[in-house]
Design brief:
2 copies of one chain form a homodimer.
Chain A lengths: L3 H24 L10 H14 L3 E5 L6 E6 L6 E7 L19 E3 L2 E3 L3 H22 L5 E7 L9 H7 L8 E3 L4 E2 L5 E4 L4 E10 L5 E2 H4 L6 H10 L22 H8 L5 H8 L11 H10 L4 E8 L8 E2 L2 E10 L5 H14 L6 E8 L9 H10 L8 E3 L8 H7 L4 E2 L16 E3 H18 L1
Parallel strand pairs in A: 3-6, 3-7, 7-17, 9-16
Antiparallel strand pairs in A: 1-2, 2-6, 4-5, 5-18, 8-9, 10-14, 10-15, 11-13, 12-14
Helix pairs in contact in A: 1-3, 1-13, 3-13, 11-13
C-alpha cells in the first residue's frame, strides 16, 4: 500500500491541475431539462476516464447516454462510483455574480452551474485515482464508473439501464454521487433515501367555466370535487387515510434511534429559517422531531390550481381543478402499491371522477449502518476531517439509490464536498477547494483500504 | 293621453337619430375598471338629459360621479330609471370583428363595447321620452334618472350615494338598467337578485416554500390547511356547514313555484352548453331544478392557488395558499351576517390561521311579483312583443337592486333589449335594432300608463 503521506503530497501538489480539469467540465453546459450539451459533455467525461486508462463506453438510453468506465486493479474487489454529468438549469441568470458556465475562482471557492452537483464529485474522484496511479502505477482494486446524464430529470432511463446491465455493473460496494459536511464542518454519512410517488390529481366537471350566479346551486364544481377528494386523503391529524398505506412501513429500530439521537438539534434552526410557529403532531424538537422528519411517510400537497387566481373577485365556477401531490415513502412501501391504493381509495370514496397522472416515482431504500463498507468509509474520514463522520441512517429526500441497493445488492455510501453554502440548484453554486482536496484524500484512502 | 299610434310612428320615424345618439355615446370609452373616460362620459350623459329639459347634476362620489336628472310632469307620480354609463373593459381586442369604440352597424345590429350593457338602455329610454314630449309637449309624470359610473366595478360608492340622497331619489317605482327577451324572443320580467358575500381565504404557514423532502412530515403545509378549512364549509352533500347559515332563508312561496313552473325547461340546454354529466343533489330538470338554481344560497369555490402549478413535478411544500369563495344569498340572509358566521365557524373549527378578506358584497332583494307596477309593465309589453312577458320571480345573479328596494322602498322591474346573443361583457357586444325600437315603445307605454 502506498503511503498516505505520499498520496496527500501528490494531491496537494496537483490540486491546481485537477481544478483546471474541473473548470473545463463546468464550462461545458449539460442541462438535462433543456436538452443542452448532453452528448458533448458525455464525450468529455468519457475522455477523462480514458485518460486514466479506463475502458470506456458511451451507452445510449432513450434519453441522454450513460458513460460507463472500468479499470482493473490488483485485488478482485470492485468499487462502483455513481455520478451524473447533467446539471440543473442556470436560470435565473440575473442572480449570478459570475456567468454560470464560466467557472470562476473567488475566496477559495469555485463558482459555476453544476460545480457541486455533480461535476466536482466526478473530477475529485478521478483526482484520487490519479494519486494512486502516480504512486503505484496501478489501481489497488477494480474501479467502475457509471455516470448518467438525466439525474436532474428524474433519472427516467436509469432503471432500465441498471436492470439491463446487472453484470456490467457488478461490484462489491458503491459510492454515491453526493455527500458533504454540515454547518460545523463535520462530515456526514447519509444512508437511505425515502421513496416518492408524485401524482397530479385533476377533475373536470364541465366543458367551460360557468358564472357562479348560474351554476353555484346546481352544477358540479371542479374545485369542490378536488377539495373533497384531497380531504379524503389526509385530515388535520396528519394521518394518511388511504387504507393499507401504512401496512408495509418499517419503523426505525433501536440502532436507528441511537444514531438519530446522536445528531445535532435542528428545531431552532428550522423555526428561525422558515419562520415556523410550530411543528406538526405536537413535536417540539429532539430525536422525535428528527425521526418523524425522515422515518415517516408523507402526503404533501405541492400545488393547487383552479378557476380565478388574479387580484380581486371574479364570480366564476371552475370547470377544471388540479393538485400536485407527493407521497414520500419509507421501507418497505413501494410507489406502485401506493398508486394502486390511491386509486382504490378514491374510487371507494366516490371520486371516480378524479384522474391520477403519475409524474414521478422512486422506491425507498436504505443501506444498513452496520455494513462493513459503511464502517470503512467512516473510519477513513477520521484522519482527513477535524471531526468524526456522523451516520444519518435515513434522509428525507428521494433518488435512484434503490436501483443499486436492490438490483445490484450493493451497500451505498455517501461522501463528498457539499456544505451548507454550496447552493446546489441555486444561483452562485460553488464548492470549497479545501473540501475538494479533503474529499480526494478521503476517496484515495477508501479505495486503498477497500482493496 | 297621446295616442299610441302617434308615439309608435314617431319612434319608427326617428330611429336613425336615436341610434346616431347612441353611437356617439358608445364612441366615448368609459371603462370603470381602467378608470378610462369616466368624467367625459358623465358629461355627455348629463348633456343628453339637459337636451330633454332635465335638471341635471353631476354628483361626485369617492369614485366615478353619478349623473342625476329630473323633469317634472303632469301627474304627481314619479318614475325612477336606474342606469350606468360605465362599461366593461374591451379586451381581448383581437376577438372583435370591428373596433369596440367605433360603433358599427351590421345586419340590423349595432356593435360596440357597452352598447347593450348599458348605453342603449339609456338612449332608448330617452328616445321614448322624446316621443312623449314631441306629441304632448310635456311628460305625463315626473321622471328621474340615476346613472352611475361604477356598476361594472361593484357599485362601490352607490350604497353611500343612495343613503345620502333618499329624498332626492324619492319615487313611486323604478325601472332597472337591464332586461330583455329569451331564446324564443319572449320578453322576461326578472324580479329579484340574490345577494353575494365574496371572500378570499388565505393561509400562511412559513416565510418561504420548503422542500417537500424536508418539510413534508413535520412542517405545517398552507395548502393542506386551506383544503381542510374549505372542507369544513361544505361537504359533498352540498349543505353549507356554517352554523346559522340557513336560519334566515325564506323558501319560495306557492306563487313563486307557480311562476317558476311556467318558465321553459332549461336542463337540456345546460347539459349541452356546458357538457354536464349531471346536476347536483340528484336534480334532473323541471321546476325543482329552476327553484334550486335561484332560491337556494350557495358556497362556491371560484379559485384555488397554492405552490407549484406549472408542468411536471416540483417537490415543494407551499408556505401560502388561498381560495376565492362566493356565497350567493337569498332573502333574508345578509352578507354582513354571513361574514360574521364564517369567522365564528372557522375559529370554532380550529382555523384561526385562515384569514378572511371581503372582496365584495350585496344584499339579496326581491320585488313582489304581485306588485301593481309589475303587472302594469307586463301588461304594457303585450301589444309591443309577439309573446306575453313572463315573470321570473328570482334570478341567480347579484346587484345593487336592494338599495332601491330597501332604502327607497320601490318596486324594481326589469325591461330592456338584451337577448341571448347580445354578448354583454364579451367581444362583439351588440344590440338588435328591432328590440331597441320595441323597448322604446314599451317604455313610452309604461310611462303613460304609470302616470
Amino acid at each position: 500500500m502506498v503511503g498516505r503521506t505520499a498520496i496527500d503530497a501528490y494531491l496537494q501538489d496537483h490540486l491546481d491541475e485537477s481544478i483546471a480539469e474541473l473548470s473545463r467540465l463546468v464550462a461545458q453546459p449539460s442541462v438535462s431539462a433543456q436538452n443542452l450539451g448532453l452528448p458533448e459533455c458525455a464525450a468529455l467525461v468519457a475522455q477523462m476516464l480514458q485518460n486514466r486508462g479506463f475502458q470506456t463506453e458511451i451507452i445510449p438510453t432513450g434519453g441522454a447516454p450513460v458513460v460507463f468506465g472500468e479499470r482493473k486493479g490488483r485485488s478482485d474487489k470492485t468499487l462502483l462510483f455513481y455520478n451524473h454529468y447533467d446539471v440543473q438549469p442556470a436560470e435565473p441568470l440575473e442572480l449570478w455574480d459570475s456567468q454560470p458556465f464560466v467557472p470562476t475562482l473567488r475566496d477559495g471557492k469555485l463558482y459555476g452551474r453544476g460545480v457541486s452537483d455533480d461535476k466536482a464529485h466526478i473530477t475529485s474522484r478521478l483526482f484520487a485515482i490519479d494519486a494512486l496511479l502516480a504512486e503505484a502505477g496501478e489501481l489497488p482494486c477494480n474501479i467502475k464508473f457509471v455516470i448518467e446524464g438525466e439525474e436532474e430529470a428524474s433519472s427516467v432511463h436509469l432503471k432500465d439501464f441498471v436492470h439491463e446491465n446487472v453484470e456490467k455493473l457488478a461490484a462489491d460496494a458503491c459510492v454515491w454521487e453526493f455527500g458533504g459536511v454540515d454547518h460545523r464542518d463535520a462530515p456526514m454519512q447519509y444512508l437511505g433515501l425515502r421513496g416518492i410517488c408524485y401524482v397530479e390529481l385533476s377533475v373536470e366537471t364541465a366543458n367551460q367555466d360557468v358564472h357562479s350566479g348560474t351554476g353555484g346551486s346546481i352544477f358540479p364544481n371542479a374545485a369542490w370535487r378536488l377539495v373533497w377528494a384531497l380531504n379524503s386523503l389526509k385530515g388535520p391529524d396528519e394521518r394518511v387515510r388511504i387504507p393499507g398505506f401504512y401496512d408495509t412501513v418499517k419503523p426505525p429500530n433501536a440502532r436507528d434511534r441511537e444514531l438519530m439521537d446522536a445528531l445535532p438539534e435542528t428545531a431552532d434552526e428550522y423555526r428561525e429559517r422558515y419562520g415556523l410557529k410550530e411543528f406538526l403532531k405536537g413535536l417540539t424538537g429532539g430525536v422525535e422531531l428528527r425521526l418523524a422528519e425522515v422515518f415517516e411517510p408523507t402526503c404533501t400537497i405541492c400545488g393547487l390550481t383552479a378557476g380565478y387566481q388574479g387580484r380581486g373577485s371574479k364570480t366564476v365556477q371552475p370547470a377544471r381543478a388540479s393538485a400536485k401531490v407527493d407521497f414520500r415513502l419509507v421501507p418497505d412501501q413501494s410507489p406502485e402499491e401506493v398508486l394502486e391504493l390511491l386509486r382504490l381509495h378514491l374510487d371507494a370514496q366516490g371520486f371516480q371522477d378524479v384522474k391520477i397522472d403519475l409524474l414521478g416515482s422512486e422506491s425507498p431504500a436504505r443501506t444498513n449502518p452496520e455494513d462493513p463498507f459503511v464502517r470503512l468509509v467512516v473510519q477513513e474520514a477520521a484522519d482527513v476531517y477535524d471531526m468524526p463522520m456522523e451516520i444519518v441512517p435515513m434522509t428525507g429526500g428521494s433518488g435512484p439509490n434503490h436501483l443499486f441497493i436492490e438490483a445490484l445488492h450493493l451497500p451505498v455510501v455517501t461522501a463528498g464536498m457539499g456544505y451548507p453554502g454550496t447552493l446546489a440548484h441555486a444561483p452562485n453554486e460553488n464548492i470549497r477547494l479545501d473540501l475538494y482536496l479533503k474529499h480526494a484524500m478521503h476517496m484515495a484512502r477508501v479505495i486503498q483500504t477497500f482493496a
